[in-house]
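Predict the 3D structure for this chain.
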Amino acid sequence: MVTRRRFLIGAGALAFSGLAVSILGKNQATGTNTIVKGFGPLITDPNEILDLPAGFEYQIISELGNTMTDGFPVPDKADGMGCLPLDEDRVVLVRNHELKPSDLSKQPAKIQQHKTDLAYDQTEEGIALAGGTSNLVYNLKTQKIENEFLSLVGTIRNCSGGITPWNTWLTCEESVTKAGDGFSKDHGYIFEVPATATGLINPVPLKEMGRFNHEAAAVDPRTGIVYLTEDRGDSLFYRFIPKVSGQLHKGGQLQALVIKNKPSYDTRNWETPVMKHQEWHDTEWINLTNPESPEDDLRLRGYKEGAALFARGEGVHWGDQELYFCCTNGGEKQLGQVMRYRPSINEGETNESTNPGRLQLFLESEDKSLYNFGDNLTVTPFGHLIVCEDQYTAIVDNHLRGVTPDGSLYNFARLIMQTELAGACFSPDGSTLFVNIYSPTKTLAIKGPWDKFNNLSV
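Done. Predicted structure below.
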């Protein structure tokens, strides 16, 4: 029985969602971290879907093949998702579908035959590519779906994304497919889906935000700057400074993060670990030219100019004046890292270098039974991280892992079926955690005694 969780934990003042707590502790020097009871042991689910602690329950609010309000069936491969307020009682879940062109023939018949002028791209026969998003209007009081419909079609591999302070969802294509071979458009862009959508939107690629293997996005509500991850083994960490905050379609400047005085720094720790826990690194940002990158070389050009390397940047989420992002196979044992970035008070301004932003290796897994391939993540209303694991092996179950403000860890959920959990996000009132089961698609609403957290060590 494992009673200690071994991680490399970043030290300093940790501020999740408004909660600032010191995590300098007696175990920091060794990198060990204590398991806490959390919400209690996981109870076996008789339906063999998701094990949860006692008192918690899930509701399947949407699943593959169900007929939506617009008459279309729910598509497969539900990935990243955002929860946006609509009114006092209702929220909108904007859900990605990470579908490739080759997945079209595996979708329900109506999707295989879908033709519309509002598709971003289509096959030579005029069929809309199946990737995109669906919107779910959910009533928190009645706990029922009131409306559900396709909101974006014609894209490829919409992996994750991020919500914005102006109540939209940024959905990101994890593909750099080019026009040709039966398709008319280049791919690898971000699209914006508003909470107020009532059907298919007009798909506008935000080209100045870069064309690459996009994963996720997080917006600093103070500055409107958008931070972006890239799912590649040699990825960069990007930021986009818009010309007009909240109006991304008007363009801006794409940049890549550099560790100050350490050009082309390798944070991955794969061969010779160089990035240590507890250390803050001052940062700089370099401008990237030609962001549409027809040769898919943004990361190569950026690295050559000094940008830092990351191991498969994936989920990113804004906390309290700082953000956190997963590097799925980072670390000496390639089991996953979480990075923490604290922006400058002059972020994006000409005097930024006088008080630079800082980057920290917040945690690095040393044991796959403790944390394995963290992907999507969210910052909870009660001040923790919830991380979705994404590992496809026969002997390891994917979990939702919790990380407390003092660096302790706990299991919140265990997925029984062999697929991944994705798109974890909370309702604005903190009552409900929504999460996707990737394939076959299921979207769950989880409720329970969120106030019953136990911080005692196991």
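The chain has a mean pLDDT of 91.
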